Amino acid sequence: MKTIDVTVSRLIPGPAADVFAVWLDPACPGSPWHGAKKIIAHVAVDGLFYWGHEHAGEVYPHYGRFLKLEVGKLAEYTWMSNNTHGIETTVSVSFEPRAGGTQVTIQHRGLPDDEDGRDHEEGWEYFLARLEKSRN
What we know:
Helix content is 22%, strand content 48%. The longest helix has 21 residues, at 115-135. The radius of gyration is 14 Å and the shape is globular. It contains two helices and seven strands, in the order βαββββββα. The chain has a single domain (3-135), classed as 2-Layer Sandwich (Alpha-D-Glucose-1,6-Bisphosphate, Chain A, domain 4). By secondary structure, the chain is α+β, with helices and mostly antiparallel strands. A seven-stranded antiparallel sheet has the order 1-7-6-5-4-3-2.
């Protein structure tokens, strides 16, 4: 199967260590995990997660394993869902200090080259916007 990578980026107010902490904390409104129908996460290298994201009345399961965690710099994890057709993909979220905040860049690699795979770009843009809004 042909695959694609998607990359999105946004300047988020606040120091990199704080933005990193919010990203990984389901209790924080700016975290993509916040508001999940169900979340199980062991945030540690080789820790597993399950994230049940509700959309349009359905719960969409997402699974993965944390590969790298560098506080204030990088969170990298595998990602499987219905929209990856069971393919294990990789999400890298980098946090780079900038004037005015932290540049958060999400690179999602190995997605199916179809509508489901390409939809991840819009999804990650949504979560970056939510993160930015929570920091203002």
